[in-house]
Amino acid sequence: MRRWGSTRRQGTTGRTGQRGRTGEPERTGRTGRRLRRATAAVACAAALAALTAVPAQAQGPARQERAPHWSLKDTGAPDVRFRGLAAVSRDTAWVAGTLGTVLRTTDGGRTWRDVSPPGAGELQFRDVEAFDARRAVVLAIGEGEDSRVYRTDDGGTTWTETFRNPDPRAFYDCVTFFDHRHGLAMSDPVDGRFRILSTRDGGRSWTVLPDTGMPPALEGEAGFAASGQCLVSSGPKDVWLATGGADRARVLHSADRGRTWTATDTPIPAGDPARGVFALAFRDRHHGLAVGGDFNPGLPSPDAAARTTDGGRGWRPAAGPPPAYRSGVAWLPHSRTDALAVGPTGTDLTTDGGRTWRTVDTGSYDTVDCTPDRGCWAAGEKGRVARLEQ
């Protein structure tokens, strides 16, 4: 969305749908898969219980261990705001942000390598999708040629610009992948309809899809390039697009990789260029979460979260929503009920599938992403990147 901040994951495997699992012990067969799922589920449940428990220091000298918490990692980039985040594993993550910055860690955030594309210092990267520690795609936002896509196959040592927007009316906000080959990017409306860009080779080449299957956009409707989560996928063909800025905040759904779409109103308030749905997360093709509100600091954001159990055909407001605007959301791995939402004023946790939320941290983050091996990461302003420590 050009009007703000422009110069403006998702099943349990994250926003790309099928991310790599670097650093995970190699096991084969059904027994190995069951063991991985069971181990991660037990650890995740224990982490959630401790996250909301009484702090160890309040339990007396017998308990000195700390509860799970966001642990800030020193990125060495205090002037950068990271709105793009791709969690590959507990050890490996990519972040992308302002000043054309892309960073990568492969040791759990202890060290970060600056892998920014050469000559991109004037660009704003708002989304990054990583397949593993070496292969990633980043999206730069902006009007006309400022909207670009880059791909790397060697961990960011070299990059190839694979798309530069030739249309001054287009403004790309988000990108998502169904698998290592098939993906989509979305632009704010052109000629009254959202524009969809498609790749079938992992982001090496892109094609604008026909807009005949896209419903008309509302007056003032656009996407929010706030967290890389305004376009998310789950499974091989399902994808959802979040909107705001119009009289109604909507979610558009496609079950055929972006060729035809249906639009559904959400209960998240709109009616202003700064209001609407900012982020989506789907743990499967039926169960999804939406968060948003009003991004202007200090303004109230009632009903800032909603949930669906029918693939986005209907949305219900949270009975106990987050207390303020939230720009990122992610399901916790191996859970059918637990998720995190983040924003500039804090992190909220739901343990009932989005019906109610409660604040568990007051740090500022713009985006959040989790991986199957319990690697939950968050990123935001002033170079802030954190990992949820178990």
Automatic annotation (TrEMBL):
Residues 7-16 have a biased composition (Low complexity). Residues 1-35 are annotated as: Disordered. It comes from the Bacteria. InterPro entries: WD40/YVTN_repeat-like_dom_sf. Gene3D superfamilies: YVTN repeat-like/Quinoprotein amine dehydrogenase. This is Oxidoreductase.
